Amino acid sequence: MTLELRVSASAETACREAAELLAAAAERGGHVALSGGSTPVPAYELAARLAPDWSRVEVWWADERCVPPDDPQSNYGLVRRSLLDRLTRDAAAVHRVRGELPPTEAADAYEAKLVDVVFDFVLLGIGPDGHTASLFPNDPAVDELRRRAVAVQRADVDRVTLTIPVLIAAETIVFLVTGEEKAPAAARAFAAEPDPATPASLVRSASGTTIALLDRAAAGHLPN
Fold first, then answer.
1. How far apart are CA 31 and CA 16, in angstroms?
2. Which residue from 16, 39, 165, 220 has the fewest beta carbons nearer than 10 Å?
3. Phi, psi (rounded to 5 degrees) for 118
4. For residues 20 and 1, what is the distance between their CA atoms, to the nearest angstrom?
5. Could you read off the pLDDT of 95-154 as tens digits, one per residue?
6. pTM (2 decimals)?
7. What letters, b where the CB count within 10 A reaches 16 and e where it falls short, cover 174-212?
8. Helix (H, G, I), strand (E, B) or coil at 80
């Protein structure tokens, strides 16, 4: 479970590198899982220009908020606007989480679709608390070993997330982390021992490649 750490001079450069990796994955085809949040939006927009043909890709989500697809908080909606709607050839399949359902039902429906799926490429981020996807510090979802997708209760809005076993089975995992506010979490995730208090530290490809793309600000607490 090795980690390749790449530090860029700027967030723009880190996003460009993420876009290039995502575009290459699209050209290879296969199962690709994407994440929400504002950080990857420039990478999605550029990836759509670099690789406008996603006809060999099946698109999935690392996690989703339990909201309708047209809700501003929807990760599906964000990826659709910044990436999918910009393609010249649509993805072979788009497997969104049905966030409009009750959380447990949405997780069960997603779980059923994920049977026998192995991801070729997963793009993840990290929150300031060290969470990734919707795997939050010391949440029961972090310890889930049997299911591929679970519901996660949160104070703001409930979520559905992929679990660690399905994430670490991916051939390539890419973390995109930018901004000074992420620096302490990035140090715990990429320079400390694995710890359920920092779920991102537990997500490494078991047999493939894990790449962490950081700007200088996010890398500020990493050891020299």
1. 21
2. 165
3. -120, 125
4. 23
5. 999 999 999 999 999 999 999 999 999 999 999 999 999 999 999 999 999 999 999 999
6. 0.97
7. bbbbbbeebbbbbbbbbeeeeebebbbbbbbbeebbbbb
8. helix
**pLDDT (0 to 100) of residue 2:** 84
Tell me the C-alpha distance between 41 and 106, whole Å: 25
Closest CA to 200 of 157, 170, 164: 164
Please give the mean pLDDT across all residues of the chain: 97
Q: Considering only CA atoms, which of 213, 211, 166 is closest in space to residue 1?
A: 211
Domain boundaries, the chain: 4-194+205-215
Of 75, 69, 195, 70, give the one whose Cα is nearest residue 129: 195
Strands (DSSP E) found in the chain: 4-8, 30-34, 57-61, 63-65, 93-94, 121-124, 149-152, 159-162, 172-177, 209-215
Was domain 4-194+205-215 assigned CATH 3.40.50.1360?
yes
Question: What average pLDDT does the segment 63-76 reach?
Answer: 98
Residue appearing with tokens 């339990």: 66
What sign has the CA pseudo-torsion 62, 132, 3, 21? positive
Pairing state between β 209-215 and 4-8: parallel
- What one-character-per-residue DSSP string does 147-173 give? -SEEEE--SS--EEEE-HHHHHTSSEE
pLDDT of residue 195: 97
